[in-house]
Design goal:
heterodimer; A: 367 residues; mainly beta; Neuraminidase; five-stranded antiparallel sheet; four-stranded antiparallel sheet; 25 strands; 8% helix; 45% strand; B: 159 residues; mainly alpha; Potassium Channel Kv1.1, Chain A; three-stranded mixed sheet; 9 helices; elongated; kinase activity (chain B); SKP1-like protein (chain B)
């Protein structure tokens, strides 16, 4: 006798991604099943482990291929090193950023320069979507119709329906520099739809004037991509469902603010120094963005010194990963005390995100 | 004494496919959704026949339902772990079929987890045999998939 289909599904959704990747080759219907939305969603929920982060960093200088490590932040920490998925023979990396993260998929952008002068192709710019769990990488082709010229480009990754895993969209916003009135113009917005593998232009931009330029990259949460303004006064927000922009006023503005995306939620970090104390007290306020665009104060971190900056939030806002300090990434508690250091020799971190294990495919071809 | 008599008069008789009669209390019977609905449909004094369940599987299910009534969470966990440890993969499969037929919700949660843990490092061939699946890929298709995800074939257990 054999197991009914529902029982087989109950077993399969409880398997880790690596096993499922191997079991794709058991039979055709499994290979198809592992690409369906509901299967991917349930499997991801059952494999959730909130204590892992993925860190993209440079060990020596910016011209080396970046290093990627998945860290289980438990004590003692565990490390798994992954290989940067983009490389070109005879080209060296000039520049790279991580420009988006959504549902376990990471967006990487890299510029390569040719090692030989005699070729016509001196630079290659490449944007790649990458799933570190399945190690699948997918190049986003350049849009031949995109405007050329001196624009600031901001990008982000998202899905229109938070429950889908095959509708990834990559957005690129072109912003023209400040004019006489010191304002910035959103001149062109394009979206790449991974499902149809095509670009389309958004003509109805709504928010066309910005009083500040934006910080890169965008942070995804709940169907929306967010970019903090460089003056920290507002957040530009793009809704992947309606394809519309809106702006959200930030809760408060100091000399230094940032947004990060712990657990599919937007956290706004406000750094301030209280000079009424001697020595001065360094406080990091954390605010959460609610669904209705309002802000709720979550907690304060009292930092040991002014060099403490937070780049990831763990364990329900009780542990925080800081920017690299003396080559190692520190883990703080909410009183700003150093709990431990991760053995990652990061001179500079380029991106740190929640690590979500998912078998979400980037190309939907079915064998 | 009186209590015991009333309990036994309330007890429900289950007849397995291999002809063994089990008497279970209504509390135990009601945790098997299929039996719960059969009791409602028929006169409860009748013996309920279970054409898809054998005596070994039914005795294991009853053992589980009686045993998991331990008082503390850790005691239940310990009991569950021991209960699963005593079963081979083949036995788990047969039991899971019975559990699926009788709709024992708690085991429907626990057993797939146990089976998943036991097969996660197994080979593709082992899985086909275990689930009774016939490979429907052509050799070249299968080779192509395997080549794309060669890394997923590291660290596989011996069958």
């Amino acid at each position: 006798m054999s197991l009914a289909e529902e029982l087989v599904n109950e077993i399969l959704t409880r398997l880790p991604a690596k096993s499922l990747m191997r079991f794709k080759s058991v039979e055709r219907s499994w290979n198809t099943l592992f690409k369906t939305n509901s299967f991917i969603r349930i499997q991801k929920e059952r494999q959730m482990n909130e204590d892992r982060v993925i860190i993209f960093y440079n060990e020596t200088g910016i011209y080396d291929l970046p290093k990627i490590t998945v860290v289980s932040t438990c004590d003692p920490p565990q490390y798994e090193t992954l290989e940067f998925p983009i490389s070109h023979l005879n080209y060296c990396l000039m520049e790279h950023i991580t420009s988006g993260y959504c549902n376990g998929i990471y967006c990487l952008e890299a510029v390569f320069g040719c090692n030989y002068r005699e070729t016509n192709h001196q630079y290659i710019t490449e944007t790649v979507l990458w799933n570190p769990t399945t190690r699948e990488a997918k190049v986003i082709p350049n849009n031949p119709l995109a405007p050329t010229g001196n624009f600031m480009c901001h990008s982000g990754l998202g899905v229109s329906d938070p429950n889908t895993f095959d509708q990834f969209k990559y957005i690129q916003i072109y912003i023209a520099g400040a004019g006489a009135d010191n304002e910035y113009d959103v001149v062109y917005v394009e979206l790449y739809d991974l499902n149809t593998q095509s670009w389309f232009v958004i003509h109805d931009i709504h928010v066309t004037r910005l009083k500040s330029s934006l910080l890169a990259p965008g942070s995804y949460s709940n169907g929306l991509c967010h970019w903090l303004s460089l003056d920290f006064t507002f957040i530009l927000c793009f809704d992947f469902h309606s394809n519309k922009f809106r702006t959200i006023k930030s809760p408060l503005t100091t000399q230094f603010c940032r947004i990060i995306e712990p657990n599919n939620c937007i956290a706004y970090l406000v750094y301030e120094t209280d000079y009424d104390y001697d020595p001065p007290r360094h406080i990091i306020q954390i605010w959460n963005l609610e669904q209705d665009d309002t802000w709720v104060k979550r907690c304060n971190i009292v930092a040991a010194d002014e060099y403490v900056t937070i780049c990831a939030i763990l364990k329900d806002y009780t542990e925080f990963i800081g920017e690299p300090l003396y080559y190692y990434m520190p883990l703080y508690n909410s009183r700003g005390q150093l709990l431990r250091q991760f053995q990652i020799p990061a001179r500079q971190h380029i991106g740190i995100y929640d690590y979500v294990e998912t078998i979400a495919p980037l190309s939907l071809y079915i064998i | 004494m009186a209590e015991k008599a009333s309990e036994s008069s309330n007890s429900i008789s289950l007849n397995t496919v291999d002809g063994k009669i089990f008497k279970v209390s209504p509390t135990i019977a009601n945790q098997m959704q299929t039996i719960q609905s059969l009791i409602k449909a028929y006169d409860s004094s009748r013996v309920i026949s279970l054409p898809h369940v054998n005596a070994f599987h039914l005795s294991k299910i009853i053992e589980y339902l009686e045993g998991k009534s331990a008082t503390t969470v850790s005691a239940v966990k310990e009991f569950e772990a021991q209960f699963m440890k005593d079963l081979s993969l083949k036995q788990l499969k047969g039991l899971l079929i019975a559990v699926g037929y009788l709709k024992v919700n708690e085991l429907l949660e626990l057993m797939p987890k146990t089976v998943a843990k036991l097969i996660e490092n197994k080979s593709v061939e082992f899985l086909r045999k275990f689930f009774g699946i016939v490979n429907d890929f052509t050799p070249s298709e299968e080779a192509k998939i395997r080549e794309e995800i060669a890394w997923a074939f590291d660290g596989v257990d011996e069958d």
